[in-house]
Amino acid sequence: MERLLDKRLWIVSGKGGVGKSTISAALAVLFSSRGERTLLCEVNASDRLANLLGRGRVGPEIVELADRLWAVNLQPEASLREYALSILKFESIYKAVFENRLVSYFLRFIPSIQELVMLGKIIFHVEERLESGGPKYQRVVVDAPATGHAISFFSIPRVLINTVPPGRLAKEAERMRLVLEDPEITTAALVSLPEEMPVNETVDLGAALRDRAHVQTSLVVLNGYVEERFTAGDIEALAAAPSLQRAATQHRAEAAASAAFRRRLAEAFELPVVAVPRLFTYPFGRGAVDSVARALEAALKAIG
């Protein structure tokens, strides 16, 4: 567990709707509860984290959500401004260049410029240092785009290295690549549901991240897991209560499916699969995220 949790950059992705934002928030809560300065990043999203963590809006400026827990919603325009200012140094030059209509028009045609500057901001925060020399954020958790977009997003450094001429852009891409591909720094945590399509997409996503972005997956989370609670004998004993018997039978079938999908993911990734139980909570806010964080912590401890 300790070695896994030593990773600095956590990329959380999966098929849309599997609960990756919940798992991202729960991992960030887990890290901060362990006393680690943690930054939780959304990527140009609709402010899901604010709702999950019960705080005000999370925008393009980093905000503190709790002790040792910060969040930011990476947005293309703000990220481009930060990225450009870090190079140009002077705001007047930035305005003259990047706020020029003609320049802005041509920027649209630079391949993946929006994704590049958002990824650059993520890497910047991974490498950001305190005056003492230690990392400003000991853990950076990225609520990454869903499956297909995630693959292209984290493949950008390799694509640019192979397409742009030597220069500042190529050097920046190489710096990003080195961080993303270092298994001591970066890991992907892939999230699925115990259903056919999400499991298939999770397996494909893991392979694509490995082959195209060279990002290693160290954690697979099966969200909405149903534990078996009823034996065949239990169901037989409910014969006098048909509605209860049907509910128990359905629950047992879902538990069997959860176990089968868990085995399938474990075989595909050759990794233990962390099961997060299905929660029946409404509204799904900070209390639910804390429950998921506890489930993750317990499962990771069991892995050892």
Quick structural gist:
Helices cover 55% and strands 16% of the residues. It contains 13 helices and 8 strands.
CATH structural architecture: 3-Layer(aba) Sandwich
Q: How many DSSP helices?
A: 13
Radius of gyration: 22 Å
CATH homologous superfamily identity: P-loop containing nucleotide triphosphate hydrolases
Q: Can you tell me the CATH class?
A: Alpha Beta
User: How far apart lie the N and C ends?
Assistant: 5 Å
Pattern of helices and strands:
HEHEHEEHHHHEHHEHEHHEH
Mean pLDDT: 85
| Count of discrete structural domains | 1
Q: Strand portion, in percent?
A: 15-25%
- What share of the residues lie within helices? 40-55%
Structural notes for this entry:
This protein is an alpha/beta fold. The protein has a single domain (2-229, 261-303), classed as Rossmann fold, CATH 3.40.50. Helix content is 55%, strand content 16%. It is built from 13 helices and eight strands. The protein has helices at residues 2-5, 20-33, 48-53, 76-88, 91-98, 101-107, 113-127, 147-163, 168-180, 196-213, 232-237, 242-269, 286-303, and strands spanning 9-14, 38-43, 63-66, 69-74, 139-143, 186-192, 217-225, 273-277. The protein has an eight-stranded mixed β-sheet, with helices on both faces. α2 (20-33) crosses α13, α4 (76-88) crosses α7 and α10 packs parallel to α12. The longest helix is centred in the C-terminal third of the chain and has 28 residues, at 242-269. The radius of gyration is 22 Å and the shape is globular. Mean pLDDT is 85; it is low at 90-94.
